[in-house]
Amino acid sequence: MNLLDGKLVSAKIKEDIKQEAASFTAQAGRKPHLVAILVGNDGGSETYVASKMRNCELVGFESTNIRYDVDITEAELLAKIGEINEDPTIDGLIVQLPLPKHIDPDKVTEAIDYRKDVDGFHPINLGRMQRNLPCFIPATPYGIMLMLEHYGIETSGKKAVVVGRSNIVGSPMSILLARNSTPGNCTVTLTHSRTANLKEEILAGDIVVAAIGRKNFVTADMVKEGAVVIDVGINREESAETKSGFKLYGDVDFEGVSKKASWITPVPGGVGLMTIVGLLKNTLEAAKGTIYPK
Ligand code: NDP
After folding, report:
1. Ligand 1 centroid – CA 166 distance (Å)
2. At the top level of its lineage, which domain of life is listed (predicted)?
3. Which of 94, 114, 216, 269 has an alpha carbon 20 to 30 Å from 286's alpha carbon atom?
4. Whole-model pTM over 0.90
């Protein structure tokens, strides 16, 4: 078993981003700027946003975290997004999900100017991704593709099985793996909770991406010998053993599956760190105007 080491790869790519950010700042007279809106005080969301902000500082970006109480109205949130869309000093905008039930996440996603949509969730970016056109790619699948690229994992002609079809991970992942690109050119099976014979489907995968949200769901008996296994899951459980009071578990039973896999990502230390890299790369591209000229 070889480790797909998110710590190592993300540190290397962040060093490159830092240098590019410094050149941008020298030329533009300002830093690339990411704004993150956080509504409410969900523990997981707080941790993710704090980590995104910290990483922006690390690579020399400006970052602003706008926080709202859980009872902000949808209209107020949409008005703020409209304001940010018009602000030329802000390059990227993300609204942390999940949102409270009274706010429609689709309306929010579509309200963000697609040229600032560094999460890559806007239908324009998703459509352009499907057509292999320049766009912001959703951060988690983007980070996974960068990881596969870094380790030179062969994808062409391979059978990839994606478990989970969410708009932010599973679906875009399946599109990226199937595109005519490198990495890419896999034959992809996209599975979900209504898939019949899920174990047999997963067993056929040369590459397995698990994005389900269930602790240790994928076990050794479900994985082909020598498969490449990407664990997207972040399942938080309270724990007295850690300083934070939480322990993280993936969707893959690492202990068992790592004995059969040729390559595998750990949790933590795998996809989560690469997601941040995807977001930072998108923000830099937004600042430079390379995808959508300013
Ligand atoms: P969602 O809850 O939106 O989607 C889960 C998907 O898994 C759905 O498509 C669902 O199927 C499928 N699923 C659920 N149960 C089963 C089952 N028993 N068998 C087969 N499929 C099943 O989750 P997300 O995609 O947002 O996130 C998935 C995981 O990844 C979570 O743990 C999340 O925390 C983590 N995550 C990690 C990130 C990172 O940076 N590492 C970033 C984003 C998410 P159906 O559609 O039929 O309901």
Report:
1. 6
2. Bacteria
3. 269
4. yes
Look at residue 126 and tell me if it is in a domain.
no
Residue 289 lies inside a defined structural domain of this protein: no
Give the domain extent around 97. Answer: 29-114
221 is catalytic: no
In contact, 279 and 15? CB cutoff 8 Å: no
CB distance 164 to ligand 1 below 6 Å: yes
Task: Choose, from 96, 116, 206, 224, the residue flagged as catalytic.
Answer: 96
The CA 287 to ligand 1 mean position distance, Å, reads 31
Atom of ligand 1 nearest to the CA of 44: 34
Neighbours of 63 (CB within 10 A): 20
Instruction: Evaluate whether residue 187 is within a structural domain.
Output: yes
Q: Are residues 212 and 170 in the same domain?
A: yes
